[in-house]
Amino acid sequence: MGDNTNLVITFAAELLNQAAELIKNGLHPSEILIGYEKAWKECSTLIEDAPKYKVTDLKNHDEAVKIIKPTIGSKLLHGHDNILAPLIAEACISVLPSKAENFNVDNVRVGKILGGSLSDSQVIKGLVVARGCETAVQKTENAKIAVYNCPLETQGAETKDTVLFKSADELINYNRSEEDFMENLIKGIVDAGVKVVVAGGSVSDMALHYFERYQIMVFRIMSKFELRRVAKAVGATPLVRLGAPTQEEVGYADRCYVDEISALKCIVIVRDSEENKLATLVLRGSTMSLLDSIERTVEDGVNVYRNACKDPNFVPGAGAIEMFLSNGLKNFGKTITSLDQYAVKKFGESFEVVPRTLSENSGLNASEVLANLNSKNSEDPHMGLNIKNGEIENAFNLGIYDHLETKKWAIKFAVDSVLTILRVDQIILAKPAGGPKFDRSKQQNPENEEM
To answer: Which of 445, 80, 132, 91 has the alpha carbon at shortest distance from 297?
Structure first.
């Protein structure tokens, strides 16, 4: 459903720590297994009863910012989330199809340009390729696009033969045959209705000459991964042969033009079709490592929006939902009379690792925070930790939301891995047996021993 990697790892580790403590106290792993499975079933019921916030309008910019901001806030410098969240929301809303469930994260691309600051970043409705155009054609509309994953030049002979010319006419005719081949090749591309050619390698001067003559827009992309992305975005098939493409192999764009961003020539490809719109978030920054870090953050933000398209329900964050589940499972453990009640209670205690980690990372007194959070969350399950002042406040009022479905899957994956580990009841170590060392030289030469 999304990221939540940290929660899976942290929660699974805490479950194992609690299980280890139970084993030391004499509880058999089988009892812990039964208790954890009961707790997981009860947890699934409790999380459905948790307080929820539902996103009613995915095209509403303010609502989109509201759910994206808490996800990216922990990964950026203070204040940067206020700049980046509206940009991610704008990009996501601009490519949202009529059926929200079909939202495709690949339609939101990221372009990284050095120079300026994050506040100079912008959203361009189209696919941005940070390359200049090879020909003089700077703009075209309703264009068919051919993508070649090979150099656009005449191929030399495989053998190193020597060509002997006896007269100037023979030399002229030889050159003319090469020119005729290139012209026929490009004329075939033009006859297929192609207006834009994307090359994955070098383009010869002769090819550029004929592209200019037929007013074809040409640009090169040296990265094969970027070439595939462009081909996928426009719906084209990358060709590995020189020749005219078939109608099934060409892509399409409503507009294709050259723009200048921070003195860097960029090509913008725009598709206005309802189901396949494109948007590029052009990030600006001082170093490439900073831009790479922000790009990963953007991916998290886009995935949260995609998750909201599948399930619009969110639960309170800031440790509120975890404390709500913890209290619920502890109360459930009191109703069980068998030995596995201890495992159920420890399962509930494991959820406290999230608010504890939040308070420790914020420099707060974890024991004091957990005690306050426990008492206030029991009365109102919306209550979470405000790390700025250490107070216990309403998580929804603080603007901290966790995606419900993602949270459920994260807990499920953590529990599945822990149950698998607990089922391992024997560990067999392979180690060499005792006795004298084996002499390999005697085995290799048995004749020497007989002699």
So the answer is: 80
